[in-house]
């Protein structure tokens, strides 16, 4: 564990503001593969930093390069050009023993858990320590601590084949934390778990991040995972970072097409019964104006209903939509039906809801059958 | 009749000696060879592609030569190693030389079946290459290696009959000399029964051990 300190405490001096301390830094990072005589560009000029203490998400479709990017942090993959600094230190050019030592400061968990079938839960968790030459008594003690941390006290001497997916990932997490790392890399850690188990594993990761101050870097193709626990997110598309920022911002106002495509899974489309009744012109005097309001959370204010009704009139109806809180900001979409003359009051509505007027879109007019 | 009992017991003991010594040698060298084959290929832990190809070719050569030919071709080598070309120890040399590449290929398959994700996991936790070898490859492949050793042992019991040709004795030798050449059906049947019991015991023990070591279910 002293060795870990050697590696990762070569961080910037304490004078730097704490929240700005960059723990992992990619500098002009590129990676090519040779596949079937053809050169594939897996990563292109990736340049950003991951701050100490945050939960950083990297999202992209399969083949976008996220797995390669994650593995370059602990050198399971080598960059073709550019640098990666971990705790201010470049891990390239280390010999086998030095690299092994450095990796003890970086835990990693996997989609398929990668537990050794020939070892019990306790032996799996203790393996990183055993490999590092830690005394048996000390290993036993640490394993007990870790079992408590992940809530598997009763499974100490069970073989992994007897565990559920969620339990296996808990063993994976305990094993990754054996050396008290500063960073935890999560490679699609919840992708083979059911939604309920996913929630519990994400909650555990959040606790570890908060309580042990472990910086978490996770890759996923599921926006829901990012929304659930990440502080910041980078969107990767064809090896490039196309968008990066706080999660609420990227979700609320996605700039890149790739981000919008990934977000589509979370967006509530118009229900068919409403869709079928939309006309571009009011057909009768009873036709209602159909508005689509996108709440981006930028203002940090929750949408108030009183002013909304005041702006649009008492006949306003809420047809569809949903609001979620991401990092404490209300985000979502509302589809409203209101009197056609409210058309002229959209600016007022935008002001009341504290969103830019561009976030309010007229979908058309709703006919009554 | 006491003569025959004596002959039978001696022959059984000779077979056990030949097979156990050869199996031990094959297990050790065969496993080492298998590790060499799975770790030196291109992109492997200790990538030495030329060595890998060379060793692979040598293994193939020894695997292609029929045992009865190998027995004769190896005579000078046998004399060099054990100082004689007849007897139990002389038979153990060709049996081992045939057993090493045979077991190496079987063990190689088990080692290759170890999930690459496990290797990655141990590297990520700060394991060196020797840790990958000792903590992942060998323990994870162990049930398969034990099954492979069982197959090797059974094949070796069969080959040991031919070793009788170099005056090593053994159950197979008795079956050929007394049962076949002298048309003694009683000897033939009792020797065959002995071999069946031997093979069954080896297979049953091997299977039980492999099952015990396998924690995948």
From TrEMBL, chain A:
Residues 24-263 form the ABC transporter domain. GO terms for molecular function: ATP binding; ATP hydrolysis activity. One of its GO terms (cellular component) is plasma membrane. CDD domains: ABC_MetN_methionine_transporter. The keyword Iron-sulfur does not apply. GO terms for biological process: amino acid transport. Transmembrane segments: none annotated. SMART domains: AAA (SM00382). Belongs to the ABC transporter superfamily. PANTHER family: AMINO ACID IMPORT ATP-BINDING PROTEIN, METHIONINE IMPORT ATP-BINDING PROTEIN METN. Part of the ABC transporter FtsEX involved in cellular division. Important for assembly or stability of the septal ring. This is Cell division ATP-binding protein FtsE.
UniProtKB/TrEMBL annotation, chain B:
Residues 12-204 form the ABC transmembrane type-1 domain. Gene3D superfamilies: MetI-like. CDD domains: TM_PBP2 (cd06261). InterPro entries: AA_ABC_Transporter_Permease, MetI-like, MetI-like_sf. It is found in: Cell membrane. The chain crosses the membrane at residues 20-40, 61-82, 88-111, 132-157, 187-210. It is a multi-pass membrane protein. One of its GO terms (cellular component) is plasma membrane. Its main location: membrane. Keywords: Cell membrane, Membrane, Transmembrane, Transmembrane helix, Transport. It holds the Pfam family BPD_transp_1. GO terms for biological process: D-methionine transmembrane transport. NCBIfam families: PRK10782.1. Belongs to the binding-protein-dependent transport system permease family. CysTW subfamily. This is ABC transporter permease.
